[in-house]
Specification:
single chain; alpha+beta; elongated
């Protein structure tokens, strides 16, 4: 097992060196091809080589390819679920940045967030009392003791009607 591991490492290092030197020569031989594209191809080949090395080590340790596929697909599934969950938070945060920069309304303004395709339905109306990192907080006009927390992405993706402030005396 030790000799097999050593052989895998030696072959990996040698192939990695060959890939790096081949791509270094290709940058000079192909001046019309952008360097960034060649680097992407090089990284993809090196990643595939790393996958083969990991597969070889697992085979050397006695793991069946079906076991490796099960582990790999489970890890990919977990990553997909985590990215999907994180996407919603990231979307709301990014929309919050856009609202902070564009400033379609300010704290203290009365706004209505409505669906532009459903003009017959009233929207969510209230006075903006806070803009946190993820939410626009509205105080309900009909029920001042109630607050509504609207994610920024819902505010930005719908229509916003801003009502003029009452003149202060």
């Amino acid at each position: 097992m030790l000799m097999g591991s050593l052989a895998i490492i030696v072959v990996w290092v040698a192939l990695d060196w060959l890939i790096r030197s081949a791509f270094a020569r290709s940058v000079q031989a192909l001046p019309n091809v952008p360097r960034s594209r060649l680097q992407i191809v090089e990284q993809a080949i090196r990643l595939a080589l790393l996958g083969l090395v990991i597969f070889s080590f697992c085979d050397l340790l006695g793991y069946a390819p079906q076991d490796l596929w099960t582990v790999f697909s489970t890890i990919l599934g977990l990553i997909a679920v985590a990215l999907f969950a994180f996407w919603s938070i990231l979307s709301s945060f990014t929309c919050g940045l856009m609202l902070a920069v564009s400033r379609p309304f300010n704290v203290g303004d009365t706004i209505e967030v409505f669906d532009p395709s459903a003009t017959d339905k009233p929207g969510t109306r209230g006075t903006v009392v806070e803009m946190s990192a993820l939410f626009t907080v509205l105080q309900d006009i009909a029920h001042p003791e109630q607050r509504m927390h609207l994610p920024h992405n819902q505010v930005l993706q719908r229509g916003i009607r801003v009502f003029p402030r009452a003149p202060q005396s």
